[in-house]
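Attaching the record inline, Q. Sequence:
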Amino acid sequence: MIFLNQGLRMTYDDLGSGFPVLFIHGHPFNRTMWLPQVQSLRWRFRTVVPDLRGYGESERGPASVVTQEDFACDLARLLDHLSIDRVCVVGLSMGGQIAMEFARAFPERTEALVLAATFAQEETPAGVIGRNRAADRLLAEGVVPIGSEMICKLIGPETLKKQPLIASRVMPMICETDPMGAAAAVRGRALRRDYRPALAEFAGPSMIMLGTDDAYTRLADGQALQAVMRDCRMEIFEGIGHMPNLEDEDRFNRCLHSFLDSFVSKTPSR
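Structure, as predicted:
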């Protein structure tokens, strides 16, 4: 489906019925990374799964920097278009940080929050330099060489041994990503705020899901975030890397169903 987001084409899937769940993909992926979760949840829940601006089939626009705030506002406009008031927001990696921004900017629309393979801190000075260099490299070289280097970090080593075909599911998403859209998002991500103060005030239920072999996200950061949030459960995936939703999709889906069941029965469908 297509929604004109301030004149830019935004492509999304809207499947199932019942309580709505908004899925936000990571970088440098697209909405198809959530296919196992949509297939599992759509029989009981309404799943809204967009391509972020500049990713997948969504247009990127002219901006050279797209911030977390920009992405969150895009998603709020999509929910307005779909006449959806409140949602459970699920995000992975960069998508998790956009989910945090959405909860900060639109707490009245965030019924619950699921944060997978992500962290809440602002970027470090060295990280800002690194992300801007990565954006320059995306523009100069494209996504394929960078994605080829990332793949062994995105997927845990044990997963690659046991399920090598997962790489063949992840790499095509990377290769299809527009380097200009990805570069704009990377530059915007370097500007993100520290989300911990807002998350400490978040009143809804939340869940953090992290793999022990995640090359990008430290387990200690997730545990520290859980400690400051009011109603937060933690799910640790042993031997899993940065993509738990694909590396152990059965357990990931069970966790989602259990989490949603813990509050949806008390919440009217919207």
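Strands lie at 2-5, 8-15, 20-24, 46-50, 87-92, 110-116, 206-211, 232-237. The longest helix spans residues 125-141.

More tomorrow.
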